[in-house]
């Protein structure tokens, strides 16, 4: 599920990954965003988010990059 609320995006992964995600283990989500303007120009950016499973992280480690830096 992907929903956009204001400027934040929520992505639910349901219970399909429960067996993979073990509490206390580090995980990294990588998000790649490609935007195309009406004139056809394409802009790409991304981010990597480091989290600990089952732990609320008020200020997660987020690294922003452009594809040439990945």
3D architecture notes:
The protein is an all-beta fold. The chain contains no helices and 5 strands. It has strands spanning 2-5, 8-11, 26-36, 42-52, 61-65. It has a 3-stranded antiparallel beta sheet, with no helix packed on it. A two-stranded antiparallel ribbon has the order 1-2. β3 (26-36) and β4 form a beta hairpin.
Which helices and strands appear, and what pairs or packs with what?
Layout: E1 2-5, E2 8-11, E3 26-36, E4 42-52, E5 61-65
Antiparallel strand pairs: 1-2, 3-4, 4-5
Brief rundown of the structure:
It is built from no helices and five strands. It has 70 residues and is mainly β.
**Percent of residues in helical segments?**
under 10%
Sheet-strand content, in percent, reads over 45%
Which segments are poorly predicted (pLDDT under 50) over 5 or more consecutive residues?
Answer: 1-7
> What is the multimeric organization of the chains shown?
single chain
Using the CA coordinates, give the radius of gyration. 15 Å
Taken from the alpha-carbon principal axes, the silhouette is elongated
For the terminal residues, how far apart are their CA atoms? 26 Å
Widest β-sheet, arrangement of strands: 3-4-5
Q: What is the total tally of β strands?
A: 5
Count of discrete alpha- or pi-helical segments spanning 4 or more residues: 0
Q: Could you give a short account of the major beta sheet? A: 3 strands, antiparallel
- Helix-strand topology string: EEEEE
Mean pLDDT: 77
Number of separate domains: 1
Which structural class is indicated by helix and strand composition? mainly beta
């Amino acid at each position: 599920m992907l929903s956009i609320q204001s400027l934040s995006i929520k992505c639910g992964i349901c219970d399909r990954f429960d067996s993979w995600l073990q509490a206390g283990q580090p995980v990294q989500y990588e998000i790649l965003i490609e935007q195309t303007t009406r004139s056809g120009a394409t802009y790409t950016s991304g981010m990597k988010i480091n989290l600990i499973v089952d732990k609320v992280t008020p200020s997660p480690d987020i690294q922003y990059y452009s594809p040439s830096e990945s």
